[in-house]
């Protein structure tokens, strides 16, 4: 009986350490990083049990190219800026993860910073 308990302990330990390693890898190791620009058309908090912040950026005039992203709930300054900039042209920096967990968001793209920009669709000089 003692041998069975020892084997069971090592099996549980193996799966626990494996889950911790997998979770840490998915959370801390980015698949890609970059920037995207477009009109911020949506930022909302949604979900049934776990509320996550989700948004969309239109990257084309017709709205055919939509960039969907998530924002971690602890990034309150980014969430506040996104709410303020809704409807404006923005540039966001993002980190793409290999996978996402339900408590982080619906997408694998997570915004790390946001700034308001001048839209390329409007004349910047105003006279021409």
Walkthrough of the structure:
This protein is an alpha+beta fold and 128 residues long. The protein is built from 2 helices and 5 strands, in the order αβββαββ. A 5-stranded antiparallel sheet has the order 3-2-1-4-5, with helices on one face. The longest helix is centred in the N-terminal third of the chain and has 27 residues, at 2-28. The mean pLDDT is 88.
Task: Provide a short characterization of the protein structure.
29% of the residues lie in helices and 37% in strands.
Distinctive features:
alpha+beta, 5 strands, elongated, about 130 residues
Order of helix and strand elements from N to C terminus: HEEEHEE
Instruction: Tell me the number of strands.
Output: 5
What's the helical proportion of residues? 25-40%
Main pleated-sheet profile: 5 strands, antiparallel
Radius of gyration: 21 Å
Strand order of the largest sheet: 3-2-1-4-5
The end-to-end span amounts to: 87 Å
Apparent shape: elongated
